[in-house]
Amino acid sequence: MFSGQKLKEARSKRGLTQAQVAARMGLSGLYISYWENDRHAPNGVNMVLLLRALGCELEEVTE
């Protein structure tokens, strides 16, 4: 299951802001904020884009 806390940790570990990750994905920073605060979870397409933007594996953002 997707974890907003793990996403935040993965992003911080790479020294990226929410805005930087969102820009790499072509999205608004609001998406990243919602995901990190577990208000929403990324859909399949956005999950792929997120993993690419962070350069990480699925296990890093799931429990």
Question: What does this entry look like structurally?
Answer:
With 63 residues, this protein is mainly alpha-helical. It has a single domain (4-56), classed as lambda repressor-like DNA-binding domains (434 Repressor (Amino-terminal Domain)). It has helices at 4-13, 18-25, 29-36, 44-54. It is globular and about 25 Å long. It holds the Pfam family HTH_3. This is Helix-turn-helix transcriptional regulator. InterPro entries: Cro/C1-type_HTH, Lambda_DNA-bd_dom_sf, TransReg_Diox_bact_type.
Overall pLDDT level? 97
What separation lies between the terminal Cα atoms?
A: 5 Å
DSSP summary: helix tally: 4
The portion of residues forming beta strands comes to: under 5%
Structural class: mainly alpha
CATH superfamily: lambda repressor-like DNA-binding domains
Name the helix and strand elements from N-terminus to C-terminus, one letter apiece: HHHH
Number of domains: 1
Specify the CATH class.
Mainly Alpha
Radius of gyration: 10 Å
Give the low-confidence spans: none
What is the architecture at the second tier of CATH?
Orthogonal Bundle
InterPro entries: Cro/C1-type_HTH (IPR001387), Lambda_DNA-bd_dom_sf (IPR010982), TransReg_Diox_bact_type (IPR050807)
Keywords: DNA-binding
Protein name: Helix-turn-helix transcriptional regulator
Pfam family, one: HTH_3
